[in-house]
Every structure is written in structure tokens, then in C-alpha cells.
Design brief:
It is built from seven helices and seven strands. The chain is an alpha/beta fold.
């Protein structure tokens, strides 16, 4: 069960949102940006974004996380209502320290999947249970999911959230993230 901690207005580069902070059972604080009136609405656009300090905050080009976050915010800024759920699960759930260790292995030529496995970690440890709880909090059972990740869609569907549409998030590969994106597409099934 999630617990609402606080709510406030948040002016962003993409427009005005309400920001909600929730605490999950694991005591992590997650943020939800809400555009318009979403309570009880169905088939609304939703982005579920996992934290990426290196990309989201520091602007790393090793991944497309920041591009996906910005494109999602801009998209939501142009519609009447929608949600961006920001989950605190850095590095596909392995944490910042392990993510940087994986980066080091990637510097040696291993792909993102191989690097995690070499560290004895799962390829993707993320859990979207909190996102399901947020959607239930807002009484939303059907969404248009902004994602390239079929595993995210499968998780939501298996947990009672209907994904009526997938909204792809496309970004141009850079010399720094091209290998990473290719790995996500080929080895992880991402629909890029």
C-alpha cells in the first residue's frame, strides 16, 4: 500500500504539473507528475520512468534515459491529462554503485547485459509494482503507455492494468549510446 506524502504545483519546461510524492513499502520516495484531472480516467497517457542519475541529471549520452524523460514530459505537456511516474530504481534496479561498475565493464567492450551478468546481477531487476499502486490510487485501470520496453507492458497487464496503446519514444542514437540501444533492441526486446 502506498502513502501520499505531499502534493504541490510544479512548473516545468513542458508546462504546469502537480507533483505528488509517495512512499512505498520499501521506504523509497517516488514522484508522480500529474497533468490535468486524471482521477478515474481511462486510456490516459502514462510514462513510467526509472531513475537514471547519470542520464536524467548529469546528461550522460551513454543511454537514452534523459531523452525519453524529456520527450515524455513534452508529450504530456501538450495533452489535457496524463501521468509521469518516476521510480527510484537506479540502473535497472541494481543501484548507482553497481551501475558504475557495469559502465566500467562496458568500457572494456562488454554490452549492458553481459556487464550485469558478469557482476552476478540480473539483467533487469526493476519492479513496477509501485506504478500499479499509483494507477490504482488514481483509479486508473487502462492506459496508453509511453515505452519501448515490452517487459513493462507485460508486467502491467499481468497486474490488472490494461495497456490499450503503446506510445513509442524515439530518439536518435549517438555514437555514445548506439551500442547500448542495439543491445536493448536485440537482447532485451525493446521496440526501438
Amino acid at each position: 500500500m502506498i502513502e501520499l506524502n505531499a502534493k504541490a504545483k510544479l512548473p516545468t519546461m513542458a508546462g504546469m504539473f502537480d507533483i505528488y510524492t509517495f512512499k512505498s513499502d520499501d521506504s523509497k520516495e517516488h514522484a508522480v507528475l500529474v497533468k490535468g484531472e486524471v482521477m478515474g480516467r481511462q486510456d490516459i497517457p502514462v510514462r513510467i520512468h526509472s531513475e537514471c542519475l547519470t542520464g536524467d541529471v548529469l546528461g550522460s549520452r551513454r543511454c537514452d534515459c534523459r531523452d525519453q524523460l524529456i520527450r515524455s514530459l513534452v508529450y504530456l505537456g501538450k495533452v489535457d491529462y496524463g501521468l509521469l511516474i518516476y521510480l527510484r530504481q537506479e540502473g535497472r534496479g541494481i543501484g548507482l554503485l553497481n551501475k558504475i561498475k557495469a559502465y566500467s565493464l562496458q568500457d572494456e567492450g562488454y554490452d549492458t547485459v553481459e556487464a550485469n551478468l558478469m557482476l552476478g546481477l540480473p539483467v533487469d531487476k526493476r519492479d513496477y509494482s509501485f506504478a500499479v499502486e499509483v494507477l490504482k490510487y488514481f483509479r486508473i485501470s487502462s492506459i496508453k503507455l509511453m515505452t519501448n520496453n515490452p517487459a513493462k507492458m507485460d508486467f502491467l497487464t499481468k497486474n490488472g492494468i490494461s495497456v490499450s496503446e503503446r506510445i513509442p519514444i524515439r530518439s536518435e542514437p549517438t555514437p555514445y549510446d548506439e551500442f547500448y540501444l542495439t543491445t536493448k533492441r536485440i537482447r532485451m526486446g525493446h521496440q526501438l
